[in-house]
Amino acid sequence: MSASAKPFEDHRREYADMKYVYPVVSRRSRGLSIGVNLNPDKVCNWDCPYCQVDRKTPATTTNVDESVLIDEMRRIMVDVNSGEIWNLPRFAATPESFRR
Length: 100
What we know:
The chain is an alpha+beta fold and 100 residues long. It has helices at residues 6-9, 66-82; strands at residues 21-26, 31-36.
């Protein structure tokens, strides 16, 4: 696998010490996408008929801390707008045409 393919395969929902906001390089959008994980406790709130999530165990409800989410969005946009994000090992191999 070439180094340039790796940024497209890494879709971790994590970045720095952030709880909600994360970046991924997307082939489909041909650039950087900023994701917002509104379900960080990994408890699904959908009830898809094909899903294999155990629905017998009661889910714990957690609220999204909006002030933290807004702060994370501001912080990640500083990294994106400054170009600093492309210096991180996870994104360094991203082709120039996708650095938008």
